[in-house]
Write a structure and sequence with these properties.
The chain is mainly alpha-helical. It has two domains: 35 residues; 122 residues, no CATH class. The chain contains six helices and no strands. Helix 2 runs antiparallel to helix 3, helix 2 packs antiparallel against helix 6 and helix 4 packs antiparallel against helix 6. Keywords: Membrane, Transmembrane, Transmembrane helix.
Length: 163
Amino acid sequence: MSDTSARDTLRDQARDNARDRDNAMSVAAISSERIEPDDNGWTRRLVLFLRVMAIISIVKGLYHWAQVTGFIGGEEEAFENQSMAWQTATIYFAVIELVAAVGLWLATPWGAVVWLTTVVSMAVIELMFPGIYGGSLTVVAFEAVMLAAYLALAWMAARERPP
């Protein structure tokens, strides 16, 4: 009987040790013992920038939809009284700005690509086709500054992550 009781005691100790080890691992998994270094500062700044650009894209998209639906402008600036080129560009930006806003808010790679498409499209329309929106160099400069800021933040965020 002493052999059986010794075996039972060893089995109970092994079970207790395994339970303690499992409890320790589960507590370590959910605890905040892992120290996250503050090395992702540029990534946080990039995500904040993307969210700000998402809000700006929402405003721009809603502005274009307001032009399409007639919420802004008078009788002479009505959508149906504009040229076909203006109507096409306005509908294009009304849709693509809102799609870009969703992707930017989620900080997805496709959101940045769609936003880049809107930036380049607006710059091309303003510079190459000034008859559509008036050829504002202020709009082009703003888009260029935002693009440069995005590229700089994306580059710095990529540098802080190991390959």
